[in-house]
Amino acid sequence: MAIKxxxxxxxxxxxxxxxxxxxYLYLADxxxxxxxxxxxxxxxxxxxxxxxxxxxxxxxxxxxIILLFPVVGSLLYLIIGYNKKTSRILKKIxxxxxxxxxxxxxxxxxxxxxKNNSGIRYITDYIHYPITTNNDIKYYKxxxxxxxxxxxxLKKAKKFIFLEYFIIKPGKMWNYILEILKEKVKNxxxxxxxxxxxxxINSLETSYPKKLKKYGIECIVFNELNPLSGFxxxxxxxxxxxxxxxxxxxxxxxxxxxxxxxxxxxIGHWKDNAVKVLGDAVWxxxxxxxxxxxxxxxxxxxxxxxxxxxxxxxxxxxxxxPYGETPLDEEIAGxxxxxxxxxQANDYIYISTPYLIIDTDMMNALSLAAKxxxxxxxxxxxxxxxxxxxxxxxxxxxxxxxxxxxVYKYTPGFIHAKVFVSDDKKANVGTINLDYRSLxxxxxxxxxxxxxxxxxxxxxxMIDTINKSFELTKKDIKKSPLKSxxxxxxxxxxxxx
Length: 497
Prior knowledge:
The strands form three sheets. The chain has an eight-stranded mixed β-sheet with strand order 9-16-15-14-10-11-12-17, with helices on both faces. Strands 1-8-6-5-2-3-4 form a seven-stranded mixed β-sheet, with helices on both faces. It is an alpha/beta fold. It has three domains: about 80 residues, no CATH class; about 180 residues, Endonuclease Chain A (Endonuclease, Chain A, 2-Layer Sandwich); about 160 residues, Endonuclease Chain A (Endonuclease, Chain A, 2-Layer Sandwich). The two termini are about 25 Å apart.
Protein backbone atom coordinates (compact mmCIF):
# COMPACT_ATOMS: atom_id res chain seq x y z
CA MET A 1 0.00 0.00 0.00
CA ALA A 2 2.84 2.40 0.87
CA ILE A 3 4.58 1.71 -2.44
CA LYS A 4 1.33 2.11 -4.34
CA UNK A 5 0.52 5.45 -2.66
CA UNK A 6 4.04 6.75 -3.20
CA UNK A 7 3.94 5.81 -6.88
CA UNK A 8 0.59 7.55 -7.33
CA UNK A 9 1.96 10.77 -5.82
CA UNK A 10 5.15 10.59 -7.89
CA UNK A 11 3.15 9.95 -11.07
CA UNK A 12 0.93 12.91 -10.25
CA UNK A 13 3.93 15.18 -9.78
CA UNK A 14 5.52 13.93 -13.00
CA UNK A 15 2.31 14.60 -14.91
CA UNK A 16 2.30 18.17 -13.61
CA UNK A 17 5.91 18.61 -14.77
CA UNK A 18 5.15 17.06 -18.16
CA UNK A 19 2.17 19.36 -18.56
CA UNK A 20 4.43 22.34 -17.97
CA UNK A 21 7.02 21.04 -20.48
CA UNK A 22 4.34 20.40 -23.07
CA UNK A 23 3.00 23.92 -22.67
CA TYR A 24 6.52 25.31 -22.78
CA LEU A 25 7.34 23.44 -26.02
CA TYR A 26 3.94 24.27 -27.52
CA LEU A 27 4.86 27.93 -27.21
CA ALA A 28 8.25 27.33 -28.86
CA ASP A 29 7.72 30.24 -31.25
CA UNK A 30 7.82 32.59 -28.26
CA UNK A 31 10.50 30.74 -26.31
CA UNK A 32 12.98 33.62 -26.37
CA UNK A 33 10.40 35.97 -24.88
CA UNK A 34 9.35 33.37 -22.30
CA UNK A 35 12.94 32.79 -21.23
CA UNK A 36 13.49 36.52 -20.92
CA UNK A 37 10.39 36.92 -18.75
CA UNK A 38 11.48 34.06 -16.50
CA UNK A 39 14.95 35.58 -16.18
CA UNK A 40 13.32 38.77 -14.92
CA UNK A 41 11.03 36.80 -12.59
CA UNK A 42 13.98 34.78 -11.32
CA UNK A 43 16.05 37.90 -10.71
CA UNK A 44 13.18 39.51 -8.77
CA UNK A 45 12.74 36.32 -6.70
CA UNK A 46 16.45 36.31 -5.85
CA UNK A 47 16.30 39.98 -4.81
CA UNK A 48 13.29 39.20 -2.62
CA UNK A 49 15.06 36.25 -1.01
CA UNK A 50 18.15 38.33 -0.24
CA UNK A 51 16.08 41.16 1.19
CA UNK A 52 13.73 39.08 3.37
CA UNK A 53 15.71 36.02 4.43
CA UNK A 54 17.12 35.62 7.94
CA UNK A 55 19.38 32.76 6.87
CA UNK A 56 21.46 32.96 3.71
CA UNK A 57 22.48 29.32 4.17
CA UNK A 58 18.85 28.32 3.74
CA UNK A 59 18.19 30.42 0.62
CA UNK A 60 21.54 29.77 -1.10
CA UNK A 61 20.33 26.63 -2.99
CA UNK A 62 17.34 28.57 -4.31
CA UNK A 63 19.57 31.39 -5.53
CA UNK A 64 21.90 28.95 -7.30
CA ILE A 65 19.06 26.99 -8.94
CA ILE A 66 17.14 30.10 -10.02
CA LEU A 67 20.20 31.82 -11.50
CA LEU A 68 21.41 28.71 -13.32
CA PHE A 69 17.97 27.58 -14.52
CA PRO A 70 15.62 30.61 -14.51
CA VAL A 71 12.56 28.80 -15.88
CA VAL A 72 12.68 25.59 -13.87
CA GLY A 73 14.17 27.26 -10.80
CA SER A 74 11.54 30.01 -10.64
CA LEU A 75 8.69 27.55 -11.09
CA LEU A 76 10.09 25.23 -8.43
CA TYR A 77 10.41 28.10 -5.99
CA LEU A 78 6.87 29.29 -6.63
CA ILE A 79 5.61 25.72 -6.01
CA ILE A 80 7.87 24.70 -3.11
CA GLY A 81 9.38 27.74 -1.48
CA TYR A 82 6.44 30.10 -1.77
CA ASN A 83 3.69 27.73 -0.74
CA LYS A 84 2.85 29.68 2.44
CA LYS A 85 1.01 32.15 0.21
CA THR A 86 -0.68 29.61 -2.04
CA SER A 87 -1.35 26.42 -0.05
CA ARG A 88 -4.91 26.02 1.19
CA ILE A 89 -3.71 23.74 3.99
CA LEU A 90 -1.05 26.15 5.23
CA LYS A 91 -3.44 29.10 5.06
CA LYS A 92 -5.83 27.26 7.37
CA ILE A 93 -3.06 26.59 9.86
CA UNK A 94 -1.97 30.24 9.76
CA UNK A 95 -5.53 31.39 10.52
CA UNK A 96 -5.88 28.85 13.32
CA UNK A 97 -2.56 29.96 14.87
CA UNK A 98 -3.72 33.59 14.85
CA UNK A 99 -6.95 32.68 16.67
CA UNK A 100 -5.21 30.51 19.26
CA UNK A 101 -2.84 33.25 20.45
CA UNK A 102 -5.59 34.58 22.72
CA UNK A 103 -5.20 31.45 24.86
CA UNK A 104 -1.44 31.76 25.39
CA UNK A 105 -1.35 34.44 28.09
CA UNK A 106 1.77 35.15 30.11
CA UNK A 107 1.36 35.55 33.88
CA UNK A 108 2.60 39.09 34.51
CA UNK A 109 4.04 38.31 37.94
CA UNK A 110 6.29 35.66 36.37
CA UNK A 111 7.02 38.02 33.46
CA UNK A 112 8.29 40.63 35.90
CA UNK A 113 10.59 38.10 37.58
CA UNK A 114 12.26 37.18 34.28
CA LYS A 115 12.40 40.64 32.72
CA ASN A 116 16.21 40.61 32.80
CA ASN A 117 16.52 37.07 31.41
CA SER A 118 17.02 37.51 27.66
CA GLY A 119 16.59 33.80 26.79
CA ILE A 120 13.24 33.52 28.54
CA ARG A 121 12.06 36.91 27.31
CA TYR A 122 12.64 35.79 23.72
CA ILE A 123 10.17 32.93 24.22
CA THR A 124 7.50 35.06 25.90
CA ASP A 125 7.83 38.17 23.73
CA TYR A 126 8.50 36.72 20.28
CA ILE A 127 7.36 33.09 20.20
CA HIS A 128 4.41 34.00 22.45
CA TYR A 129 4.38 30.89 24.62
CA PRO A 130 4.09 31.50 28.37
CA ILE A 131 6.80 30.70 30.90
CA THR A 132 5.40 28.81 33.91
CA THR A 133 6.65 27.75 37.34
CA ASN A 134 3.89 25.56 38.80
CA ASN A 135 5.06 22.25 37.36
CA ASP A 136 6.55 18.88 38.09
CA ILE A 137 8.77 17.47 35.33
CA LYS A 138 10.03 13.93 34.83
CA TYR A 139 12.75 13.11 32.33
CA TYR A 140 13.04 9.69 30.66
CA LYS A 141 16.42 8.63 29.32
CA UNK A 142 14.91 5.90 27.11
CA UNK A 143 11.57 5.48 25.39
CA UNK A 144 10.56 2.28 27.17
CA UNK A 145 10.54 4.03 30.56
CA UNK A 146 8.33 6.79 29.18
CA UNK A 147 5.99 4.21 27.65
CA UNK A 148 5.35 2.61 31.06
CA UNK A 149 4.20 5.94 32.50
CA UNK A 150 2.23 6.83 29.37
CA UNK A 151 0.11 3.70 29.88
CA UNK A 152 -0.40 4.49 33.58
CA UNK A 153 -1.54 8.04 32.87
CA LEU A 154 -3.79 6.98 29.97
CA LYS A 155 -5.60 4.59 32.29
CA LYS A 156 -6.35 7.49 34.65
CA ALA A 157 -8.02 9.64 31.95
CA LYS A 158 -11.44 10.98 32.89
CA LYS A 159 -12.30 13.65 30.30
CA PHE A 160 -10.13 13.70 27.19
CA ILE A 161 -7.00 12.34 25.50
CA PHE A 162 -5.18 14.16 22.69
CA LEU A 163 -2.43 12.48 20.64
CA GLU A 164 -0.38 14.18 17.91
CA TYR A 165 2.44 12.10 16.41
CA PHE A 166 4.53 12.01 13.26
CA ILE A 167 4.53 8.20 13.24
CA ILE A 168 1.99 5.70 14.52
CA LYS A 169 2.83 2.12 13.66
CA PRO A 170 0.81 -0.96 14.72
CA GLY A 171 2.80 -3.15 17.08
CA LYS A 172 3.12 -3.74 20.79
CA MET A 173 3.34 -0.04 21.69
CA TRP A 174 0.39 1.15 19.61
CA ASN A 175 -1.73 -1.92 20.33
CA TYR A 176 -1.48 -1.37 24.08
CA ILE A 177 -2.36 2.30 23.70
CA LEU A 178 -5.22 1.63 21.30
CA GLU A 179 -6.86 -0.87 23.64
CA ILE A 180 -6.84 1.72 26.42
CA LEU A 181 -8.24 4.38 24.08
CA LYS A 182 -11.09 2.10 22.97
CA GLU A 183 -11.96 1.36 26.58
CA LYS A 184 -11.83 5.02 27.54
CA VAL A 185 -14.17 6.00 24.71
CA LYS A 186 -16.71 3.50 26.06
CA ASN A 187 -16.46 5.29 29.41
CA UNK A 188 -17.21 8.68 27.86
CA UNK A 189 -13.66 9.99 27.44
CA UNK A 190 -13.13 12.16 24.35
CA UNK A 191 -10.23 10.88 22.24
CA UNK A 192 -8.66 12.78 19.34
CA UNK A 193 -5.67 11.76 17.21
CA UNK A 194 -3.56 13.65 14.65
CA UNK A 195 -0.92 11.79 12.67
CA UNK A 196 1.22 12.77 9.72
CA UNK A 197 0.33 11.07 6.45
CA UNK A 198 3.91 10.87 5.16
CA UNK A 199 5.19 9.69 8.52
CA UNK A 200 2.66 6.85 8.53
CA ILE A 201 2.76 5.96 4.84
CA ASN A 202 4.49 2.66 5.61
CA SER A 203 2.34 1.76 8.60
CA LEU A 204 -1.29 2.87 8.23
CA GLU A 205 -3.71 2.36 5.37
CA THR A 206 -5.62 5.34 3.97
CA SER A 207 -8.85 4.11 5.54
CA TYR A 208 -7.40 4.01 9.07
CA PRO A 209 -9.32 7.11 10.29
CA LYS A 210 -12.56 5.30 9.40
CA LYS A 211 -11.42 2.32 11.45
CA LEU A 212 -10.74 4.59 14.43
CA LYS A 213 -14.10 6.29 13.91
CA LYS A 214 -15.82 2.93 14.45
CA TYR A 215 -14.22 2.84 17.89
CA GLY A 216 -15.49 6.35 18.62
CA ILE A 217 -12.05 7.92 18.16
CA GLU A 218 -11.84 11.17 16.17
CA CYS A 219 -8.86 11.37 13.81
CA ILE A 220 -7.19 13.87 11.47
CA VAL A 221 -4.52 12.94 8.94
CA PHE A 222 -2.11 15.84 8.56
CA ASN A 223 -1.38 17.00 5.00
CA GLU A 224 -2.66 13.94 3.14
CA LEU A 225 -0.63 12.87 0.13
CA ASN A 226 -2.34 13.02 -3.22
CA PRO A 227 -1.23 13.36 -6.85
CA LEU A 228 -2.15 17.05 -6.96
CA SER A 229 -0.65 18.04 -3.61
CA GLY A 230 2.47 19.46 -5.23
CA PHE A 231 5.45 20.11 -3.03
CA UNK A 232 3.44 21.36 -0.07
CA UNK A 233 4.12 17.76 1.04
CA UNK A 234 7.49 19.15 2.16
CA UNK A 235 5.93 20.63 5.33
CA UNK A 236 5.22 17.83 7.81
CA UNK A 237 3.83 17.58 11.34
CA UNK A 238 6.83 16.20 13.23
CA UNK A 239 5.42 16.87 16.72
CA UNK A 240 5.04 14.28 19.46
CA UNK A 241 2.37 15.30 21.96
CA UNK A 242 0.17 13.36 24.38
CA UNK A 243 -2.18 15.38 26.61
CA UNK A 244 -4.42 13.75 29.19
CA UNK A 245 -7.26 15.72 30.84
CA UNK A 246 -5.24 18.93 30.48
CA UNK A 247 -3.43 17.82 33.61
CA UNK A 248 -0.45 15.86 32.31
CA UNK A 249 1.45 15.85 29.01
CA UNK A 250 4.23 13.83 27.38
CA UNK A 251 6.58 14.95 24.63
CA UNK A 252 10.11 14.35 23.39
CA UNK A 253 11.68 12.24 20.67
CA UNK A 254 9.59 9.09 20.78
CA UNK A 255 6.91 8.29 18.23
CA UNK A 256 4.40 5.50 18.72
CA UNK A 257 6.22 2.58 17.15
CA UNK A 258 8.04 -0.40 18.64
CA UNK A 259 11.58 0.62 17.71
CA UNK A 260 11.20 3.71 19.92
CA UNK A 261 10.89 1.40 22.94
CA UNK A 262 13.63 -0.94 21.67
CA UNK A 263 11.48 -3.69 20.26
CA UNK A 264 12.68 -4.94 16.90
CA UNK A 265 15.17 -2.14 16.21
CA UNK A 266 17.30 -2.97 13.17
CA ILE A 267 19.93 -0.33 13.90
CA GLY A 268 21.12 -1.34 17.34
CA HIS A 269 20.00 0.22 20.60
CA TRP A 270 17.50 3.02 19.96
CA LYS A 271 18.49 5.86 22.30
CA ASP A 272 15.60 8.22 22.68
CA ASN A 273 14.01 10.31 25.38
CA ALA A 274 10.83 11.96 26.62
CA VAL A 275 9.54 14.31 29.28
CA LYS A 276 6.37 14.27 31.33
CA VAL A 277 5.00 17.49 32.76
CA LEU A 278 2.28 17.87 35.38
CA GLY A 279 1.21 21.47 35.91
CA ASP A 280 0.44 24.78 34.25
CA ALA A 281 2.77 24.12 31.29
CA VAL A 282 0.43 21.40 30.03
CA TRP A 283 -1.83 24.16 28.75
CA UNK A 284 0.68 25.11 26.05
CA UNK A 285 0.67 21.55 24.69
CA UNK A 286 -3.15 21.53 24.80
CA UNK A 287 -3.30 24.77 22.79
CA UNK A 288 -0.73 23.43 20.30
CA UNK A 289 -2.86 20.36 19.66
CA UNK A 290 -6.18 22.22 19.41
CA UNK A 291 -4.63 24.81 17.08
CA UNK A 292 -3.69 22.10 14.60
CA UNK A 293 -7.02 20.29 15.10
CA UNK A 294 -9.11 23.39 14.42
CA UNK A 295 -7.10 24.18 11.29
CA UNK A 296 -8.56 21.03 9.73
CA UNK A 297 -11.91 20.69 11.55
CA UNK A 298 -12.74 24.42 11.77
CA UNK A 299 -14.80 23.80 14.92
CA UNK A 300 -14.15 27.28 16.39
CA UNK A 301 -14.47 25.72 19.82
CA UNK A 302 -13.53 27.44 23.06
CA UNK A 303 -10.20 25.99 24.18
CA UNK A 304 -10.84 26.97 27.80
CA UNK A 305 -13.05 23.94 28.40
CA UNK A 306 -9.93 21.77 28.06
CA UNK A 307 -7.91 23.75 30.60
CA UNK A 308 -7.28 22.06 33.93
CA UNK A 309 -7.42 24.36 36.95
CA UNK A 310 -4.56 23.52 39.29
CA UNK A 311 -5.69 24.63 42.74
CA UNK A 312 -2.54 23.62 44.64
CA UNK A 313 1.04 24.62 44.09
CA UNK A 314 3.04 21.75 42.61
CA UNK A 315 6.55 23.12 42.35
CA UNK A 316 7.94 26.61 42.29
CA UNK A 317 11.61 26.20 41.40
CA UNK A 318 12.74 27.10 37.94
CA UNK A 319 10.96 28.02 34.72
CA UNK A 320 9.69 25.94 31.83
CA UNK A 321 7.97 26.70 28.56
CA PRO A 322 6.68 24.20 26.01
CA TYR A 323 6.64 25.93 22.63
CA GLY A 324 5.63 25.22 19.07
CA GLU A 325 7.86 25.60 16.03
CA THR A 326 6.09 26.47 12.79
CA PRO A 327 7.46 27.20 9.30
CA LEU A 328 4.68 29.75 8.81
CA ASP A 329 5.91 32.74 10.82
CA GLU A 330 8.95 35.00 10.81
CA GLU A 331 10.62 33.45 13.87
CA ILE A 332 12.94 30.47 13.51
CA ALA A 333 11.98 29.49 17.05
CA GLY A 334 13.85 26.23 17.53
CA UNK A 335 17.04 27.53 15.92
CA UNK A 336 16.96 30.74 17.95
CA UNK A 337 16.38 28.98 21.26
CA UNK A 338 19.27 26.63 20.50
CA UNK A 339 21.48 29.60 19.56
CA UNK A 340 20.60 31.42 22.78
CA UNK A 341 21.62 28.38 24.84
CA UNK A 342 24.90 28.06 22.91
CA UNK A 343 25.75 31.76 23.01
CA GLN A 344 25.05 32.06 26.75
CA ALA A 345 26.97 28.93 27.76
CA ASN A 346 29.99 29.49 30.01
CA ASP A 347 31.10 26.05 31.17
CA TYR A 348 29.67 23.32 28.93
CA ILE A 349 26.99 22.46 26.43
CA TYR A 350 26.07 18.86 25.56
CA ILE A 351 23.92 18.15 22.51
CA SER A 352 22.24 14.99 21.25
CA THR A 353 20.81 14.88 17.71
CA PRO A 354 20.14 12.15 15.14
CA TYR A 355 21.07 14.49 12.27
CA LEU A 356 23.74 17.18 12.11
CA ILE A 357 22.96 19.35 9.07
CA ILE A 358 23.33 22.97 10.12
CA ASP A 359 23.58 26.44 8.64
CA THR A 360 26.40 28.94 9.07
CA ASP A 361 24.74 30.64 12.07
CA MET A 362 24.68 27.39 14.03
CA MET A 363 28.15 26.39 12.79
CA ASN A 364 29.65 29.72 13.88
CA ALA A 365 27.90 29.70 17.26
CA LEU A 366 29.16 26.20 18.11
CA SER A 367 32.68 27.02 16.88
CA LEU A 368 32.84 30.30 18.79
CA ALA A 369 31.62 28.61 21.99
CA ALA A 370 34.42 26.05 21.73
CA LYS A 371 36.99 28.78 21.03
CA UNK A 372 36.00 30.77 24.10
CA UNK A 373 36.61 27.70 26.29
CA UNK A 374 33.15 26.13 26.52
CA UNK A 375 33.18 22.30 26.54
CA UNK A 376 31.02 21.64 23.45
CA UNK A 377 30.11 17.99 22.89
CA UNK A 378 27.70 16.67 20.26
CA UNK A 379 26.44 13.07 20.11
CA UNK A 380 25.28 11.62 16.78
CA UNK A 381 24.31 8.04 15.84
CA UNK A 382 26.86 5.27 15.59
CA UNK A 383 24.55 3.32 13.28
CA UNK A 384 22.62 5.41 10.70
CA UNK A 385 18.97 5.15 9.72
CA UNK A 386 19.53 7.10 6.47
CA UNK A 387 22.93 6.74 4.77
CA UNK A 388 22.80 9.95 2.73
CA UNK A 389 21.83 12.02 5.76
CA UNK A 390 24.52 10.22 7.77
CA UNK A 391 27.13 11.20 5.19
CA UNK A 392 25.98 14.81 5.46
CA UNK A 393 26.24 14.69 9.26
CA UNK A 394 29.81 13.43 8.96
CA UNK A 395 30.74 16.31 6.67
CA UNK A 396 29.49 18.89 9.19
CA UNK A 397 31.16 16.97 12.03
CA UNK A 398 34.45 17.33 10.18
CA UNK A 399 34.12 21.12 10.03
CA UNK A 400 33.16 21.35 13.71
CA UNK A 401 36.01 19.12 14.90
CA UNK A 402 38.50 21.40 13.15
CA UNK A 403 37.04 24.29 15.20
CA UNK A 404 37.45 22.51 18.55
CA UNK A 405 33.98 20.99 18.96
CA UNK A 406 33.98 17.39 20.19
CA VAL A 407 31.74 15.02 18.21
CA TYR A 408 30.84 11.52 19.41
CA LYS A 409 29.21 8.54 17.73
CA TYR A 410 26.88 6.47 19.91
CA THR A 411 28.49 3.03 19.78
CA PRO A 412 25.48 0.82 20.73
CA GLY A 413 23.26 2.06 17.89
CA PHE A 414 21.04 4.96 16.86
CA ILE A 415 20.55 8.28 18.67
CA HIS A 416 17.10 9.78 18.13
CA ALA A 417 16.99 12.08 21.19
CA LYS A 418 17.00 15.83 20.58
CA VAL A 419 18.55 17.32 23.73
CA PHE A 420 20.46 20.45 24.73
CA VAL A 421 21.81 20.90 28.27
CA SER A 422 24.14 23.64 29.47
CA ASP A 423 25.88 24.84 32.66
CA ASP A 424 23.55 22.84 34.99
CA LYS A 425 21.03 25.62 34.37
CA LYS A 426 19.39 25.27 30.95
CA ALA A 427 17.99 22.43 28.89
CA ASN A 428 15.74 21.80 25.93
CA VAL A 429 14.00 18.53 25.10
CA GLY A 430 11.67 18.07 22.16
CA THR A 431 11.28 17.01 18.54
CA ILE A 432 13.62 19.52 16.84
CA ASN A 433 16.60 17.92 15.12
CA LEU A 434 19.69 19.88 14.14
CA ASP A 435 18.80 19.83 10.46
CA TYR A 436 17.09 22.11 7.95
CA ARG A 437 13.91 20.04 7.91
CA SER A 438 13.23 20.47 11.61
CA LEU A 439 14.50 24.03 11.84
CA UNK A 440 12.85 25.45 8.71
CA UNK A 441 10.24 23.12 7.18
CA UNK A 442 8.38 21.06 9.78
CA UNK A 443 5.90 21.73 12.55
CA UNK A 444 7.80 20.86 15.73
CA UNK A 445 7.67 21.35 19.48
CA UNK A 446 10.11 21.66 22.34
CA UNK A 447 10.29 22.28 26.07
CA UNK A 448 12.70 24.92 27.33
CA UNK A 449 13.77 24.52 30.97
CA UNK A 450 15.77 26.73 33.26
CA UNK A 451 16.90 25.96 36.84
CA UNK A 452 14.57 22.96 37.19
CA UNK A 453 15.57 19.85 39.12
CA UNK A 454 15.54 17.38 36.24
CA UNK A 455 18.34 19.25 34.44
CA UNK A 456 20.72 17.33 36.71
CA UNK A 457 19.27 14.04 35.40
CA UNK A 458 19.52 15.23 31.81
CA UNK A 459 23.19 16.08 32.29
CA UNK A 460 23.88 12.69 33.90
CA UNK A 461 22.16 10.93 31.00
CA MET A 462 24.20 12.88 28.46
CA ILE A 463 27.47 12.06 30.24
CA ASP A 464 26.49 8.38 30.40
CA THR A 465 25.69 8.44 26.67
CA ILE A 466 29.02 10.10 25.89
CA ASN A 467 30.80 7.40 27.88
CA LYS A 468 29.14 4.80 25.65
CA SER A 469 30.27 6.64 22.52
CA PHE A 470 33.60 7.16 20.78
CA GLU A 471 35.02 10.56 19.93
CA LEU A 472 35.64 11.29 16.29
CA THR A 473 39.04 12.59 15.28
CA LYS A 474 40.29 14.21 12.08
CA LYS A 475 41.72 10.83 11.13
CA ASP A 476 38.32 9.11 11.54
CA ILE A 477 36.63 11.47 9.10
CA LYS A 478 39.35 11.57 6.47
CA LYS A 479 37.78 10.99 3.08
CA SER A 480 38.54 10.66 -0.61
CA PRO A 481 38.28 13.60 -3.04
CA LEU A 482 35.25 11.93 -4.64
CA LYS A 483 33.44 11.71 -1.30
CA SER A 484 34.31 15.35 -0.59
CA UNK A 485 32.67 16.42 -3.84
CA UNK A 486 29.61 14.29 -3.09
CA UNK A 487 29.24 15.78 0.40
CA UNK A 488 29.66 19.31 -0.94
CA UNK A 489 26.86 18.77 -3.45
CA UNK A 490 24.67 17.28 -0.72
CA UNK A 491 25.32 20.30 1.52
CA UNK A 492 24.25 22.57 -1.32
CA UNK A 493 20.83 20.93 -1.67
CA UNK A 494 20.37 20.07 2.03
CA UNK A 495 18.02 23.02 2.73
CA UNK A 496 15.61 21.69 0.08
CA UNK A 497 15.44 18.15 1.50
